[in-house]
Amino acid sequence: MKEKNLAAIDLGTNSFHMLIVKVRSDGTTEPIAKEKESVRLGSGSGEYDEIHQDAMDRGIACLKRFKTLADSHKAEIHAIATSALREALNRDIFLNKAKKETGIKIEVVNGLEEARLIYFGILQGLPVFQKRILMIDIGGGSTELLIGEAGDVLFSQSLKLGAVRLTERFFRKDNIEITDVQKCRFHIESVLLPLIPIINKLKPEIIIGSSGSVTSIGSMILAKRGEKRDRLNGYEFTSQELKSVREELNAANTLKKRMKIPGLEEKRGDIIIGGSLVLEEIFNQFNLKKLMISDYALREGIIYDIIKNWKRYEKSNLHGLDNIRAKAIRSIANLYPQGKDHAEQVTHLSLRLYDELSSLHGYGVHEKEFLEAAASLHQIGLAISHSAYHKHSYYIIRNSEQMVGFSNAEIELIALIARYHRKSMPKPKHEEFKVLSGEEQNLVRRLAAILKIADAMNRSQKKIISDLEISIQDKIVVLSLKTLKKSDPHLELYAIEENKDLFEDAYGKTLKVLIGENSKQ
Asked: CB 3.0–4.6 Å: which of 10, 41, 172, 227 could bond 17 by disulfide?
């Protein structure tokens, strides 16, 4: 199948979002562009039974801009509308106007379908497919709750508890009083109370939050911690930290005061009280202790759902969501397709070495994943330049938005393992290396040493080494290599000799190489 560009538009009550991706023939995606505009489609509409003319005009103007950008990338557009249009009695006027003036056909989905798509979006960004999760998505008009496991929806409920909706109802005046907060809290509690037995019965293992209110709270907590992060995906905060933010928001009873709170986005200052109260009450009523943030939500779910349902993909190699890490690695590896064969051989040899050396390094499956990822991407820097490409590999791995499924700490380790597969050994003066703990430094050194030897074992890039065995004799590690018949492994032997320094330093043993033909061929 030929590559194709897709654009997913999420028409929310507060903001419109668009994600444009390139869909490759193997089902992986590459982000091309992201756009977000605060439209406030539901603003001023009271009970959301009508989209006001000014809100309608803002929405159409935004869609025109989105359409222009999508067309510039020749992207097929899929638009989904949620709470505001779901409830508006005059929604057909907006839908027809959008189709006539922009050419965009908008699908209005119910709350359960919205929750399902958000769930699929989350599963693409966090490795929680096999976990039973409670998903909390606090939008402008509604809050979606869902309990899912292994891609199955066990429970889902759409609640009319959105940040904009609650602001319109309880916080219309600028000077917010504690009685207003209390009234809003009682209202939220009354909506949540019937759900407590269901949540308790299903016993979710992990709590995951998505969309603007949750990420805004995460940014404020991040600022209070004095930390900096480019992305919040996988970031966790506790119930005590949420309580601290809520106390700070209560003290900032005017918009001007709230705008001084570090980490709070300017366009969310007027609706954060309502959104944060919803999250706090969910924590209180369901007795939650901590929450993990997902940067992935409805628009990513739309993209996945489209790909999944394309008939042309029915017989393709589209990865399951339980394998999002492999899918992420495959997406990044596509940046340097001419290195695919070498990367696969080096990965194979790295994992064979890892298994043979298990009694020496003592690591498990988790660390093996780091090595596999680093080996698959160790030469990705060649997409930039051959000069210092190992450093370019580090940069790409460390900063790629496609490294989903891994935490920031895991990404850093993988990037460093790839970085040290050639040239100098890790040194205390290297900024990225010296900030690691002693245990992490040892891990990087030992896994990078394996990768360095594996890369040397395919120096000719002819896959001459067909198998290997390791035997450990006191202070010597004997590496016995099996080669293809009538092959000449002199380049591989030379490369191993030149690159064994890190291995011998990391493992404290001398590396000796033996070679022979594979008799099974």
From this structure: 10
Q: For residue range 197-228, what is the model confidence (pLDDT) as tens digits?
A: 999 999 999 999 998 899 999 999 999 999 88
φ, ψ for residue 420, nearest 5 deg: -95, 20
**Dihedral angle over CA of 119, 125, 131, 134, nearest 10:** -40
Using alpha carbons, list the distances in angstroms from residue 497 to 459, 472, 473, 482: 12, 18, 19, 17
Sign of CA dihedral 267, 270, 271, 276: positive
Comparing C-alpha atoms, which of 185, 141, 183 is closest to residue 49?
Answer: 141
Given a contact cutoff of 8 angstroms between Cβ atoms, the answer to whether 297 and 211 are in contact is yes
What tokens appear for 497 in the block?
Answer: 């000799």
pLDDT of residue 1: 57
Terminal-to-terminal C-alpha distance of the chain: 36
Q: What is the CA radius of gyration of the chain?
A: 27
Amino acid occupying residue 155: F
- pTM of the predicted structure, to 2 decimals: 0.75
99-107, Cβ contacts within 8 angstroms, sequence gap of 24 or more: 101/60, 101/63, 101/64, 102/60, 102/63, 102/64, 102/67, 103/67, 104/9, 104/63, 104/66, 104/67, 104/77, 104/79, 105/79, 106/11, 106/79, 106/80, 106/81, 107/78, 107/79, 107/80, 107/81
At residue 33, the 3 state secondary structure works out as: strand
- DSSP summary character for residue 295: S
Buried b vs exposed e over 339-359: b needs ≥16 C-beta within 10 Å? beebbebbbbbbbbbbebbee
How does DSSP assign 367-393, residue by residue?
Answer: HHHHHHHHHHHTTGGGGT-STTHHHHH
How far apart CA 10 and CA 253 sit, in angstroms, is 31
Instruction: Give dist(CA 314, CA 307) in Å, integer.
Output: 10
What pLDDT, on a 0 to 100 scale, did the predictor assign at position 26? 81
